[in-house]
Design goal:
Structural class: mainly alpha
Order of helices and strands: HHHHHHEEHHH
Shape: globular
Strand content: under 5%
Radius of gyration: 20 Å
Number of domains: 2
Distance between the termini: 59 Å
Number of helices: 9
Number of strands: 2
Length: about 280
């Protein structure tokens, strides 16, 4: 037992160095993404809507690439994203709902124009297309709706800060303290300890982002942070399951070894939707 102790210590030090190195790379990759997010949030108006749309188009492309074998109706998916963006920016919740309903005939109609294939059915392609439309598109629409609310820019930023801090805390907590697997069949590296660290990290991140203002703080910031802390890891697990079923480790290569746009925004897709309804409740 004593002979193994130095080996364990060396392994722990090696793991610590690798963990800190990977964390540094994650932060470095996040710098341009954070700059982009701050720029479009600060600009607001149509610039924010278009800026988020561009990111979501990339995410949709990555999803369709992973499930290319099912032949998604690509044009319909991209048009639905455009329609949901316009509905959220020029209209409101009812217009987003109407556009969501309209996506079904659009996907079906354009799907009928595709050549028939023996290996997959049109239903397979429509299913993947609608998955992307509702998963990515509705998150996009809610981000735009949230930005248009009173103090919406600051709340979008607070939600994203909470999501990023929570993700980082979950990574560190799981790396150094994780022992209990959270969902081994979906993502073997995630742990219960990481989930707990992530929850408190997200809560703290949103609270810290609200300390600069006199209209947002205290229990409201903690409540919003807690909601983000619950929604963000669900979004992360959701995307992990989608990738695992498709047989992919990363959705894309936009951020090099740290994956694609979908890998970076998976948690935000859930937290922004939850943040919108939470802010409606808290206003």
């Amino acid at each position: 037992m004593a002979a193994r102790s130095p080996a364990r210590r060396r392994a722990r030090r090696t793991g610590l160095r690798h963990g800190l190195s990977d964390l540094g790379a994650r932060v470095w990759v996040a710098v341009p993404a954070a700059a982009y997010a701050i720029a479009i949030i600060a600009a607001g108006d149509w610039i924010f809507a278009v800026g988020v749309l561009v990111l979501c188009l990339v995410c949709m492309h990555e999803l369709f690439r992973m499930y290319a074998a099912l032949h998604p109706v690509r044009l319909a998916g991209f048009l639905c994203l455009l329609g949901l963006t316009a509905a959220a920016y020029f209209g409101g919740e009812h217009h987003v709902l109407l556009t969501t309903v309209a996506c079904f005939p659009v996907v079906f109609g354009l799907g009928l124009l595709l050549p028939e294939r023996r290996d997959v059915t049109l239903t397979d392609g429509m299913a993947v297309t609608l998955l992307g439309t509702f998963w990515i598109g509705l998150a996009l629409a809610h981000a735009v709706l949230l930005r248009e609310l009173p103090h919406g820019g600051a709340i979008v930023l607070a939600v994203l800060v909470g999501t990023f801090v929570g993700d980082t805390a979950a990574y560190l907590g799981g790396r150094f303290f994780g022992t209990r697997p959270l969902a081994p069949r979906i993502s073997p590296s995630k742990t219960v300890e990481g989930l707990v660290f992530g929850f408190f990290g997200a809560t703290f991140g949103v609270w810290a982002a609200g300390t600069y203002s006199d209209w947002f703080g205290g229990w409201e910031a903690l409540a919003l942070g807690a909601i983000v802390g619950v929604a963000a890891p669900l979004g992360d697990l959701f995307e992990s399951k989608v990738k695992r079923d498709a047989g992919f480790k990363d959705a894309g290569r936009m951020f090099g070894a740290h994956g694609g746009a979908l890998d970076r925004l998976d948690a935000a897709f859930f937290s922004l939707v939850a943040g919108y309804y939470a802010w409606l409740w808290l206003m």
